[in-house]
Design a protein that fits this description.
single chain; alpha/beta; Rossmann fold; six-stranded mixed beta sheet; 6 helices; 6 strands
């Protein structure tokens, strides 16, 4: 009976919100769905972690070509872009990042100003060896992308919010 109630609640939420319930990794964890399990449903994409700017950032990446970095809003994770990632990966190196404090990334006591979070993404991009990148941000991810682009004025930092 509990499973049926949970399934009905999940169906109602998905229908009501129009998005997948597991967009928030902490909520996904309550349903015993790990990032590793979710990534397995997306061929050609892999989990990764990088320590940059003093924090460990979790990301999911795949594909080849020009890099596109996806930054989700609050309280979403990389999974917010799961339907776009396989299509983007056909022509781009797609990297969807859990911002600091979200998903499987570190949750430090501070550093949540957009300048610091933009620096996180800048250092992640440099860690991958890129000097140019396209950024796609939603909600808080858009604020982080704007901060990144405003401060680091790379040769090409296209911004889509």
């Amino acid at each position: 009976m509990k499973q049926r109630i949970a399934t009905v609640a999940l169906s109602l939420f998905v229908g009501f919100a129009g998005t997948a319930l597991v967009a928030d990794a902490s909520l996904a964890a309550s349903f015993n769905v790990s990032d590793a399990t979710l990534v397995k449903s997306l061929p050609g994409l892999e989990n990764g972690n990088a320590v940059v700017n003093g924090v460990r950032l979790h990301f999911v990446a795949g594909g080849k070509g020009t890099p596109v970095v996806l930054l989700a809003g609050w309280p979403e994770t990389w999974w917010a872009f799961h339907k776009l990632m396989p299509r983007l990966a056909e022509h781009h190196r797609v990297i969807s990042v859990d911002l600091r404090g979200m998903g499987a990334s570190d949750k430090p006591a501070g550093g949540y100003d957009k300048k610091m979070m933009g620096q996180d993404i800048f250092e992640l991009v440099r860690n991958f060896g890129y000097d140019r990148v396209d950024l796609v941000g939603h909600d808080i991810g858009a604020q982080v992308a704007f901060s990144f682009a405003a401060i680091h004025r790379m040769q090409r930092a296209s911004l889509l919010c």
